[in-house]
Design a protein that fits this description.
G_OBG, 4-stranded mixed beta sheet, 13 helices, alpha/beta, ATP hydrolysis activity, flat, GTP-binding, GTP binding, Beta-grasp_dom_sf, 8-stranded mixed beta sheet
């Protein structure tokens, strides 16, 4: 297996990309020994919320992950994020951080495009009013398209000649060209299967090549459109316009700055806040519900009390959440990520070490849809020889079985030849 999935965040200056990244990587409320970590200036660890296997067996109280956290069966799993900086019109021509932006982009398995849906920043991130944010979505796509298509067209003549000379398939020739973008043969094959092209590669026109590149982008860079700053008065009309233009399954409405504020207030003991929900409770709320101590929360000053009430009305009650947790969940959904829980003991679900069996489901790995049990074994165990694999209750699992949520996702790998 290759490396873990990598989610890239892109967005023009002042769109809220940094706030979104900060809200996704804020580990202040997590338990376990996996604090927020910056891997390098551009890479960090975010937390994807999933349903943990412990809830299936009523073992929530015994679930203590090695990394991330699990609260009442809702698990936060670390996932790597990439801050792709330098998005400006003309990047494919070298403008802004042009070449570096595109070079960083190719490492990502999926993208989160943070869009300022308020329309208060122009294409370069400068303050304005009435800007159409749907333009930003179109030109990100255009930059990637022009980058890949331009590279292909520049050497298309020699690509065709070699294709014919070695009698390669279209998939083999395209993979040789697309491997530099982090592609795999499976991605190229899905691209071609989607298009069902009749003409051989050596007869493709520029129009056909553009269709191929567009389909490849869909497969290689599935993109979540994170419409940020939804609490702004101008956001509604822009959301309505974008919703008509884009696949609604790729859109998430969010307010990153609201999420950061709520987590800060919860950390400081002023509120109780359930991340990803519309539930915020203050001391006054809890006293009104019959708790004379107000849950031990601190008293809010008038400014913060008013801000929280406005945030409830403008964001939480209208949209159901700040949307930040849902942004990562949508990226995982587009990638088809499946959580798998390696255990030592398939009866107790413990890790088998000294004192480890009192805790369950200590580890969780994320794999892409279609991954087999054998591929998970290689990801978890490396080159160690596997004699056989067990599922819950000691039942043996065939290595060619595919893992899906709730099936073949709790595995114990038994060593031997």
């Amino acid at each position: 297996m290759g490396r873990d999935p990598l989610i890239g965040l892109v967005g023009k200056p002042s769109a809220g990309k940094s706030s979104t990244l900060n809200s996704l990587t804020d580990a202040s409320s997590k338990v376990g020994n996996f604090p927020f970590t910056t891997i390098d200036p551009q890479r960090a660890i975010g937390y994807l919320q999933i349903d943990c296997a412990c809830a299936r067996y009523g073992l929530q109280s015994k679930c203590k992950p090695n990394y991330g956290s699990c609260v009442n069966g809702r698990r936060s799993v670390p996932i790597e994020l990439l801050d792709v900086a330098g998005l400006v019109p003309g990047a494919h021509q070298g403008k802004g951080l042009g070449n570096k932006f595109l070079d960083d982009l190719r490492h990502a398995d999926a993208l989160i495009h943070v869009v300022d849906v308020s329309g208060t920043t122009d294409a370069e991130g400068k303050n304005t009013r009435g800007y159409d944010p749907s333009v930003d979505i179109a030109w990100l796509r255009s930059e990637i398209m022009q980058w890949i298509k331009g590279n292909l067209m520049e050497k298309w003549g020699s690509i065709k000649r070699r294709h014919v000379a070695v009698k390669a398939t279209a998939a083999e020739t395209l993979q040789a060209q697309f491997s530099g973008y982090g592609s795999t043969m499976a991605i190229v094959q899905r691209t071609l299967d989607k298009l069902q092209l009749k003409e051989p590669l050596e007869e493709w026109t520029e129009e056909t090549i553009e269709k191929v590149v567009n389909a490849f982008i869909d497969e290689k860079f599935p993109t979540v459109i994170a419409l940020n700053k939804i609490d702004h008065p101008d956001a509604d009309k822009n959301i309505a316009k974008i919703a008509k233009q884009q696949d609604p399954n790729t859109i998430v409405l969010c307010s990153a700055i609201s999420e950061i504020f709520l987590r800060k207030m919860a950390k400081q003991g002023y509120i109780r806040y359930v991340e990803g929900s519309d539930i915020v409770e203050t001391r006054e709320d809890l006293i009104a519900d019959g708790d004379p101590d107000g849950g031990g929360l601190k008293e809010l000053d008038e400014k913060n009390r008013n801000r929280i009430e406005n945030l409830k009305d403008m964001v939480l009650y209208r949209f159901g959440s700040t949307g930040v947790v849902q942004v990562l969940s949508k990226a995982a959904e587009l990638l088809g990520l499946v959580p798998v829980f390696p255990v030592k003991n398939t009866s107790t679900f413990g890790s088998g070490g000294v004192g480890e069996n009192k805790y369950v489901f200590r580890d969780c790995v994320l794999v892409k849809k279609g991954t087999t049990v054998a591929e998970v074994a290689r990801k978890v165990m490396g080159d160690a020889p596997i004699a056989y694999v067990e599922g819950p209750g000691g039942i043996r699992v065939a290595e060619d079985q595919v893992v899906v949520p709730g099936k073949n996702d709790i595995l114990s790998f038994k060593l031997g030849k």
